[in-house]
Design a protein that fits this description.
The chain is mainly beta. The protein is 0% helix and 52% strand. It contains no helices and eleven strands. The strands form two sheets. Strands 2, 4, 5, 6, 9, 10 and 11 form a seven-stranded mixed β-sheet that branches. The N and C termini lie far apart (41 Å).
């Protein structure tokens, strides 16, 4: 059974950067996606902000993060996908989750505050 383990996140000042990691217990051999969601306090549903499709490395981003966030994976480590987040604003504060197939990571807190 697939498991996803997240790391990264934390507290950063506005304009700063963070990188989230999502390590899979196995790497699918067929085409698959790793999605990144976030959920802010008081938000009922998780919001999809980025998608990475592999092995093509095709990406999709929500308008709110387009140009600032990058979802990627390095071929040297096929089990790990990343969400690089730049130019962070307080509105980006949330718990971030990775998801692949029907499996969710445990979530990691990102707080953007001065």
């Amino acid at each position: 059974q697939l498991t996803l383990r997240q790391s990264g996140g934390g507290l950063v000042q506005p304009g700063g950067s963070l990188r989230l990691s999502c390590v899979a217990s196995r790497v699918p051999t067929d085409t698959y996606t790793t999605d990144w969601y976030r959920q802010s306090p008081g938000q009922e549903r998780r919001e999809l902000v980025a998608r990475l499709t592999l092995p093509s490395h095709e990406t999709w981003y929500d308008d709110s993060v387009q140009g600032r966030f990058t979802a990627c994976r390095f071929d040297a480590d096929e089990a790990t996908t990343y969400l690089q987040m730049n130019e962070l604003t307080p509105e980006d504060s949330a718990v971030y989750y990775c998801k692949s197939e029907t499996t969710w990571g445990q979530g990691t807190q990102v707080t953007v505050s001065s």
